[in-house]
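Suppose a colleague, Dr. K., hands you the sequence of a protein chain of 167 amino acids and asks what its three-dimensional shape might be. Before reaching for any lab equipment, you can write down a predicted structure in token form. Begin with the sequence itself:
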Amino acid sequence: MQFQVPQFIETEDKIVGPMTLRQFLYIGSAAGIGFLLFFIVELWLWFLITAALIALGVALAFVKVNGRSFLEVVTSALRFYWRPQIFVWKPKKEQRSPQEEVKARPSFSLESLAQGMALKKTWQKLQTAKDEPREEKEKKTKKVRERYQIFEKLTGERQAARRVDYR
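The predicted structure, expressed as tokens, is then:
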């Protein structure tokens, strides 16, 4: 036994000509309000208000932004601007015992000692203005040049890349 599965369930039925009932009500209500305003306000003001109402009715009926109706976009925008924009994060404070605080303190390590010695040597070089001999610098830069090569991409951007020789 076969069953027919309905398709296009998101599309609304066309009831009034080429328009859905919702589209017809948007445009019809804008035209109706414009008709009532014709008897209430001056003619020049009626033209302005009716033009704005018809434009709003057409926008509500036919305009879609990223697959969403104009009414959904407008209500989302109003909600966004109406609600407060400040978000505050308050972390929970963890209670530590004094024993845990003692354990959490940094202890003596070889890494900290080596870093301190390297900083001390660098500081001494800066203070005494002693520098490596020129030959040693050239050797180091030559080694770096051998390992890396500067090349130019198709876009014209220059970039250093590691050189690999398969010999």
